[in-house]
Each structure stands twice: as structure tokens, then as C-alpha cells.
Amino acid sequence: MQELDTNHPVETVLVRVTGRVQGVGYRISTVRRAHLVGVGGWVRNNEDGSVEALVQGTPEQVDAMLEWLRQGPPAAQVRELASERQYIERRYPSFEQQ
């Protein structure tokens, strides 16, 4: 597992994914992928059936996660992915499911 390198620029992106993304292992698969990529942040289900994630890492790590989130695990059917850059002070040392 890679770790977030605090000596490099850190990018933080809030992501909302819609489609068939609940009940298909999307969150746990996202956690596994985040650990492989080495990003920090979190992922959670929303009441409206979407999944929301905060991804934090180097620009390359964030891009790798966004690419994966557009597909998700095999059973998912992602309809739309919306992302918004966030400017926050907090640094997430790991990635968790909420």
C-alpha cells in the first residue's frame, strides 16, 4: 500500500457518483482501490442512492482514482460522475468507508 506523501502537492476532490452504485460493493471496492493507489479520504452512501467520496492525494493519484470511480466494480453501472476540487486544510492519512 502506498502512503500519501506530504512533501508533494496535495489535491482534494469531492466526487458524487450516480447510477447503480449501492448494493454492488462499490464502497468496499473503492476503499481497496484507494489503498492500492495510496490516496486518503472517505467514501459513503447517500440517501438518494448515490455514492460520495472525498479523494486526496497527488494529482496523479487523484486522476487514477477518478478514472477507477468512473467504472467502479464489475456489478456497478455508473451513470454520472461529478467532481469538484476542494480547498481544505485537513489531511487524510488513510481512506475509509463511512
UniProtKB/TrEMBL annotation:
The active site is at 27, 45. Residues 12-98 form the Acylphosphatase-like domain. It catalyses: an acyl phosphate + H2O = a carboxylate + phosphate + H(+). The keyword DNA-binding does not apply. Its EC number is 3.6.1.7. The keyword DNA damage does not apply. Gene3D superfamilies: 3.30.70.100. Signal peptide: none annotated. One of its GO terms (molecular function) is acylphosphatase activity. Keywords: Hydrolase. NCBIfam families: PRK14424.1. Belongs to the acylphosphatase family. This is acylphosphatase.
